[in-house]
Amino acid sequence: MEETQGHTKQALISVCLPVSQPALIGYRGFLLTCRFAIPSYFTLCKGRTLYSVVRDAKVVLDVNKTRQIAQEMVKGMGYLHAKGILHKDMKSKNVFYDNGKVVITDFGLFTISGVLQAGSRREDKLRIPNGWLCHLAPEIMQQLSPDTEEDKLPFSKQSDVFAFGTIWYELHAREWPYKSQPAEVIVWQIGSGMKPNLAQTGMGKEISDILLLCWAFKQDERPSFSKLVDLLEKLPKRNRRLSHPGHFWKSAEYVK
């Protein structure tokens, strides 16, 4: 049980997600007191994280399977957004995959302190875990600084879509984008709207088109999750095995 900071009064947040939405973990409620955060009910996640699955060379990920995984994710996220809930920390480590079933976890629980638990925050430096930055939308990246509080970061439905785009990339490249790039470089590239050269990943045009929509620099140009359901459904069915991660970054080749 972890002690929380910054809560001055008791609050009760009821999410009440139905069992009929299998892509979401089934919280019945979440009780916050001035000292502790206690889940009143939760469903135990089965299977492996999607992060682990995509990095397993023994797992075959063809286009049909990656689409099925993505479809379950976008339907689950569409349900959350319809209920006015933002995820704020959408990443493959918060998605579980077991026997073709996808479960999204940890929605709405983002805190800066949670992200920084593997590092530390000082007056002039912000230490962060590997892979976190590539999920942040440009508008969030532009506001990120060592003294930033989470309630000041402009999370939105569109920033959740941007983060999904990174998972979509990960499903096909089987690695995070901006691999091995220093944090300062990633912040500058995403914050200024620069994108990786997708040609080196071997993605087909239909796949990269969806990715670029999710990664659009302007928020209002990113599709909603309900729109993504339609876009994924229109992808042609193919029987093609996607290769295990390679080293795609020969130089700083980026497109805007």
TrEMBL record:
Where does the record place the Protein kinase domain? Answer: 1-235
For molecular function, the Gene Ontology terms on record are:
ATP binding; protein kinase activity
- What PROSITE patterns does the entry give? PROTEIN_KINASE_DOM, PROTEIN_KINASE_ST
Q: Name one GO biological process term.
A: Ras protein signal transduction
Q: Which SUPFAM superfamilies match?
A: Protein kinase-like (PK-like)
Q: Which InterPro entries match?
A: Kinase-like_dom_sf (IPR011009), Prot_kinase_dom (IPR000719), Ser-Thr/Tyr_kinase_cat_dom (IPR001245), Ser/Thr_kinase_AS (IPR008271), Ser_Thr_protein_kinase (IPR050167)
Write out the GO cellular component annotations: cytoplasm
Pfam families recorded for this chain?
Answer: PK_Tyr_Ser-Thr (PF07714)
**What's the protein name?**
Protein kinase domain-containing protein
> What species is given as this protein's source?
Pleuronectes platessa (European plaice)
